UniProtKB/TrEMBL annotation:
Transmembrane segments: none annotated. It holds the Pfam family DUF2334. It comes from the Bacteria. This is Deacetylase. One of its GO terms (biological process) is carbohydrate metabolic process. InterPro entries: DUF2334, Glyco_hydro/deAcase_b/a-brl.
Amino acid sequence: MVEPMNPPALLLVLHDVAPQTWADYQPFVAAVDALGAVPMTWLVVPDFHRHDNLEAHPEFRRMLTDRVIRGDELALHGYFHCDEAPTPSTPRDWFMRRIYTHEGEFYSLPPEAALARLRAGIDMFRRYDWPLAGFVAPAWLMSEGTRQALRQLPLSYTSDPHHLYRLPDFSAIDAPGLVWSARSAWRRGLSKLLSDQRERRWRQAPVIRLGLHPVDMCHEFSRTYWLRALKRLLDEGRVPMTKARWLALQTDRVGRAA
């Protein structure tokens, strides 16, 4: 007997979720909710840039709890989402930490520091009774020390722009993603061009991720693109689900095949 193939999936992921970014996201989330049952994965920062601690925002936490109840996923997205490590000492590190991003919090952390922050984030999720399966490093940048720390923790997955990784062994699963650089008009134009090309290339991919950032929501051009892309992919028959749910389906499929 031949097993039916899983339908192609769509993962809608909101990065940098914090009280101060919620105003940017709120109209987009309302538009997504109006489409029907479209579950989302929210990448939550416990204390965004060290001045937006979730402890001080009970209404925001209640909103996140409501999202969990309606079927969304919350994932841990760093702890402070800012890079406070000493000044870069190599050209590569300078590029990654000063040009590519200033927010690679876990890019250079040793194992002990990474483990402490990850445990603090896990403890926060437990305090608020939020299920937690995944960790995504800010800007997807992880030191070897962070990887060592993740192997010690009760998490199911992490990710980079092109893969999900099962923990603790970091086995890779292809999961291509669209993401924009939206801070200037020329970057937004180039991002749309690249995203259109990639979407065509990935038409037969089992899964496509849409990775949104708060800055995308600040410009009508990028905000409109994401909503239209979501609708288009849904109309093509892709099934929306959270990252944790999609990964669980892959695990079930592998288990049945074995």
